[in-house]
Amino acid sequence: MGRGPRIEFPGAIYHVLARGDGREDIVHGDDDRWMFLRTLGEMAKRTGIRVHAYALMDNHYHLVLETPKANLVAGMQWFQTTYTRRFNVKNAKWGHLFGGRYKSIVVQGRKGHYFRQLLDYVHLNPVRAGLLRKADGFDSAEWTSLREYRKPPSKRFEWMETAKGFECCELKDTVAGRRKFIERLEQQVDWSKANEAGRVLWEGQGLQSTLRRGWYFGEQAFREKLLKIAGLDGEVSVVKDRKRYTSAELKDLDLKVAEKIVKEGLRILKLDRKVLPGLPKNDPRKALLAHLLMERTSVRQKWIVEELAMGSAPYVSRLAREVREKLEMGDRKTAKLKDEIARFIT
Q: What is the dihedral of CA 263, 265, 270, 274, to 10 degrees?
């Protein structure tokens, strides 16, 4: 049986799931878990993809993503490749980390109950897995986005989206609203059957089965809309992979953003493009532009190397990482220059 197609369109919402190769662990301790979340945040910043929820388990993860620019494939390719590389380097491993391609289910977003059920399903994952007991309370669910929904806005990851989550539950992002967000989850759990938490029935079958074996989550009219978008007739389950109809447009859009970063960056840094080959490959101004390009776009490192005359892709990656670390350490000069350039990027 052929795989279902990757359906991409602006504003699409997805449930994304991936497991470790051979169901092996994808994290070895909390350092890896923080690295996973940091990489997820970088992907969100680079691509504009919105992260509405996540659940990170030892050997798999769940994500609820929204793509304003219809770029799920580009974003996920960067995310999984980057995290795999970082994981392998840190843990002295090599080869594939994830087993096969990730699973993505398109979710109907306009009717809030589909989105709400998906959010609950992801957040209840630790309960189903037996990692959370009644006596623990939901405050101990460390590696799901519940930790972000519990916090006031100023304390959350800047890339974490929570507004739609509160809205679909008809709650406000206040102390009381955040408490009720957790309480409504707790009320759904029958602790005598904790492994069934969040597995509501949908069209006669469990939601878990739908999200793992299906290709969409929504009404029949939503399914027909998706088939029309993809240009497909008949059942998706028998359609083989095909080229994404938006891929060329997305690459072109990403390239335009990258070119604008370079153009505005050179202007603000008072550099002429012609002098770049004569500057040291590790010139801090080049490194800053490389950091911005890798944070805000998905262009290949080879393109950055050629545009900025920076030597090699691994070298670009190292310099961009050093800039990120300087920013995290509070380097005001670098942060000011970055903000000046970023102001001109739409």
A: -50
- Can you give the pTM of this predicted structure? 0.71
Do 83 and 175 form a contact (C-beta atoms < 8 A)?
no
Q: For residue 226, how many other CB atoms are within 10 A of its CB?
A: 20
- The whole-angstrom distance between residue 306's C-alpha and the CA centroid of its chain comes to 28
Q: Which two tokens stand for residue 340?
A: 């000046």
- Using DSSP, state whether 275 is helix, strand or coil: helix
8 A C-beta contact, residue 151 and residue 182? no
Q: What is the pLDDT of residues 260-314, one digit of tens each?
A: 889 999 999 999 999 999 999 899 999 999 988 887 777 888 899 999 999 888 8
Under a CB-based contact definition with an 8 Å cutoff, are residues 145 and 55 in contact?
yes
Q: Which domains, and CATH codes, for the chain?
A: 12-238 (3.30.70.1290), 247-342 (1.10.1750)
Length of the chain: 346
Locate 257 and state its tokens.
Answer: 């953003």
Mark out the alpha helices in the chain (DSSP H runs): 30-47, 72-91, 112-123, 125-128, 146-149, 163-168, 175-187, 207-213, 220-230, 247-268, 284-296, 301-308, 313-328, 332-342
> 92: number of CA atoms within 13 Å, CB side?
0
Q: Which residue has the tokens 């945040």?
A: 41
CA distance 132 to 200: 19
